Amino acid sequence: MDSEVKRPSGRHHGDLRRALEAAAMDVVAEKGLAGFTLAEVSRRAGVSVAAPYKHFADREALLATLVLRSYEEQRRRYRAAMARVADPVEKLAAFASAYVRFAVDERSLFELTFAAGLDKRARPELAEAGAALLGLLEAPAHAICGDDQRAHRLVLAVAACAHGHAVFVLEGVLDGPRDARRQAASAARVLANAHVAL
Amino acid sequence: MDSEVKRPSGRHHGDLRRALEAAAMDVVAEKGLAGFTLAEVSRRAGVSVAAPYKHFADREALLATLVLRSYEEQRRRYRAAMARVADPVEKLAAFASAYVRFAVDERSLFELTFAAGLDKRARPELAEAGAALLGLLEAPAHAICGDDQRAHRLVLAVAACAHGHAVFVLEGVLDGPRDARRQAASAARVLANAHVAL
DNA sequence: GTCTATAGCTGGATAGAC
DNA sequence: GTCTATCCAGCTATAGAC
């Protein structure tokens, strides 16, 4: 508790970095990726346009942090949703449902994950966070079909299918969020059961 | 053949509208949606930045035309791919495969369809073109399960699943284009057969 | 129908004071 | 660590000449 509450030196926060991240989240949530500019973020945080450069190398660096936060939040939610059921097939279905829910509830954050256009080879921490999401599915998939190879293919199929349903509901192709969740879960069950049968 | 070959009045084309569309396609294909600006398109077409405004109301109008072209091209391809097989289940699989192929071969055009951020309620021709794509699937789906309601749900499930696989391969989550196509087709078959069984 | 020229705006990023 | 001030760049859209 010692050095926690420092006096702001210029005019502002004790923790501008966090404030900038929060402001950036708000901007993305409200105006989407296109509305994300350092100028706008600075305005929201109540600082000058020069201030962020002391905390982030450039615009992209802040953006990458946001994407990472999005991955972390998704993992948290999917994990929680899957923990509520015991059956492996139902875990996959719960994932699909939660995936669609996140897309609907946190649309901009969800879109950010895919539309940010960041090079994942240049940012291994992002690739890792993305892989960690799919990692949630490995255990149930393996429980469904012992074979590693087959289990991984099931993981990808379920995730891809969930993603498609999420995008379609955002695009208005699928009717309501509720139906979309149910259908995504249903598709996940079908895929999982097919792997059991084979 | 009469009034076809008019003399360019200023300095340029007989059909600048088309030339602009083509140039815009090139720009999007090369630099993605973010690189699409009227200034850049004008440069490519070899005209001044003012010229496009005689043919398109504004930037968005040209963009909407591009999206429409993308839909048309997709419909053409999916239709051709589906025509090569007779079995309804295989038609759905062929669609899924072609869908992934288009995403890989024409990445920017594919992304344009979803990322352009155009209001489809304000542009009914786009909503219609999108619906026409799904329309391709209705007949096979109906052949698989007589019930209209169920058939439509199968259509959506297959399309969503194909979309998810397409996005995943673009993101590098799925390995190679070839495997991605096979897996998308496989998932389509599983979904279709499940609807047969029920 | 196309051009030149320009107005008006917004953003990224840096230099230097404090 | 933050500010002020500034530079440079790019885009959209319009006005008016030809």
From TrEMBL, chains A, B:
Domain (HTH tetR-type): residue spans on this chain: 14-74
Keyword ATP-binding: no
Keywords carried by this UniProt record: DNA-binding, Transcription, Transcription regulation
GO terms, molecular function: DNA binding
DNA-binding region in chain numbering: 37-56
Keyword set includes Nucleus: no
Gene3D superfamilies attached to this UniProt entry: Tetracycline Repressor, domain 2
Entries under Pfam families matching the protein: TetR_C_33 (PF13305), TetR_N (PF00440)
Name listed for the protein in its UniProt record: TetR family transcriptional regulator
Species this chain originates from: Labedaea rhizosphaerae
Taxonomy of the source species: Bacteria, Bacillati, Actinomycetota, Actinomycetes, Pseudonocardiales
